[in-house]
Amino acid sequence: MLQSATKASVDWDAHDNHWHVRIQVGEEVIKRRLDSAAKDTDADALKSKAVACAKDEGYDVDPGTITINR
């Protein structure tokens, strides 16, 4: 069973030219880079990638709580 994440966000880093996922679990924040997503990737695809990233880290995140910051 996966532990539930508090929230998650996907942010575009213009300096790095990559999307970054931030998964928050209580006070802990896990940051991961999304190498496989282009800048113009739609929000649903980014949320799906964030959910997959969270699962890889052992967490469950509700796609409705994920924010996208372009």
Summed up, what is this model?
The protein is an alpha/beta fold and 70 residues long. Helix content is 20%, strand content 43%.
Q: Would you write up a description of this structure?
A:
A hairpin with a 4-residue loop joins β2 (7-13) and β3. The longest helix has 14 residues, at 43-56. The protein has one helix spanning 43-56, and strands spanning 3-4, 7-13, 18-25, 28-34, 59-60, 66-69. The model has no long low-confidence stretch (mean pLDDT 95). Helices cover 20% and strands 43% of the residues. The protein starts with a strand and ends with a strand. The protein has one domain (3-69). The chain has a four-stranded mixed sheet with strand order 4-3-2-6, with helices on one face. A two-stranded parallel ribbon has the order 1-5. It has 70 residues and is α/β, with parallel strands linked by helices.
Features:
4-stranded mixed β-sheet; globular; alpha/beta
Mind describing the biggest β-sheet? 4 strands, mixed
Q: Name the helix and strand elements from N-terminus to C-terminus, one letter apiece.
A: EEEEHEE
Low-confidence stretches: none
Number of alpha- plus pi-helical segments: 1
- Helix amount, in percent? 10-25%
- The proportion of strand residues reads 35-45%
* Overall SS class: alpha/beta
Q: Which radius of gyration do the C-alpha atoms yield?
A: 11 Å
Biggest sheet: strand arrangement: 4-3-2-6
Counted up, domains total 1
| End-to-end Cα distance | 32 Å
Count of DSSP E strands?
A: 6
- Mean pLDDT comes to 95
